[in-house]
């Protein structure tokens, strides 16, 4: 069982798109029972999977003392893939978590779900606050999408600095270049320079189309270059998880 957080303090870098694709691949390609947990009030993950919004906003209620994640889990159109949708109740979550004073609330909730799922993918909001602390405490692996620009490299440095100044355990981070445009010289410069050797996801129309079709790219364009690139990233994540020797439940 592994918890994969798709996280970046930067907004709009492809987190939700990657989280949905990753969860879909874990379930459909890897055959793992997978839960996609949307922690971002924007609710993009459910949208990309074609889900209807929750009638009763209670995503944040899970984090209360009596909260039970299983009660809010919904199935998706895809075999082996369930989801926990976001809704407007998450607005208060960082405050609620701080008030609860339980730094490990998210870890505790995910631990409870470990029996049901082999993979839990967290779609994270672009924040550095109480919620990101809980995400770092819960995750076995953090996928960090970075735009191919000096600001992307800076976000990586900032996260490393953030981790190194903490005395608590932090999960391993898999940085990757997101939205790489091969026509841009500047992108090549970054890819060959400060981000050399990182896995890369191209800026590509089929990936963008996920939001219009509300369907994972692997369903409607499985042999596109874009889907193949995402498949390579998923494989890299699986390899990394294998190396981590995560103890079984
Ligand atoms: N590789 C890609 N190629 C083309 N378009 C992409 C790619 N990845 C994401 N997009 C598009 O970029 C936009 C932002 O993507 P996404 O919502 O996944 O980012 P995010 O990091 O989750 O944003 P936020 O910080 O707001 O949660 C969306 O319109 C999405 O369709
Ligand atoms: Mg997002």
Automatic annotation (TrEMBL):
**Which domain of life does this protein belong to?**
Bacteria
Q: Which residues form the AAA domain?
A: 1-162
- The protein depicted here goes by the name ParA family protein
- Source organism: Novosphingobium aerophilum
């Amino acid at each position: 069982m592994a918890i994969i957080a798709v996280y970046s303090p930067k907004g709009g870098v492809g987190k939700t798109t990657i989280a949905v694709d990753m969860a879909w691949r874990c379930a459909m390609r890897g055959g793992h029972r997978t839960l996609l947990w949307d922690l971002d009030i924007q609710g993009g993950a459910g949208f990309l999977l074609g889900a209807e919004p929750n009638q009763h906003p209670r995503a944040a209620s899970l984090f209360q003392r009596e909260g039970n994640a299983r009660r809010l889990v919904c199935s998706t159109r895809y075999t082996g893939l369930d989801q926990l949708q976001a809704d407007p109740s998450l607005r208060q979550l960082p405050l609620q978590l701080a008030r609860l004073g339980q730094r490990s609330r998210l870890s505790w909730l995910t631990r409870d779900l470990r029996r049901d799922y082999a993979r839990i993918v967290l779609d994270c909001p672009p924040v550095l606050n109480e919620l990101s602390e809980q995400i770092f405490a819960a995750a076995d692996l953090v996928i960090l999408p970075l735009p191919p620009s000096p600001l992307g490299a800076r976000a990586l440095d900032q996260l490393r600095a953030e981790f190194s100044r903490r005395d608590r355990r932090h999960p391993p981070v898999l940085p990757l270049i997101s939205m790489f445009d091969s026509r841009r010289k500047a992108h090549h410069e970054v890819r060959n320079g400060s981000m050399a050797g990182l896995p890369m996801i191209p800026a590509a129309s089929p990936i963008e189309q996920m939001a219009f079709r509300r369907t994972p790219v692997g369903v409607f364009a499985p042999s596109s270059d874009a889907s193949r690139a995402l498949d390579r990233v998923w494989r890299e994540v699986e390899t990394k998880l294998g190396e981590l020797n995560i103890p079984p439940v």
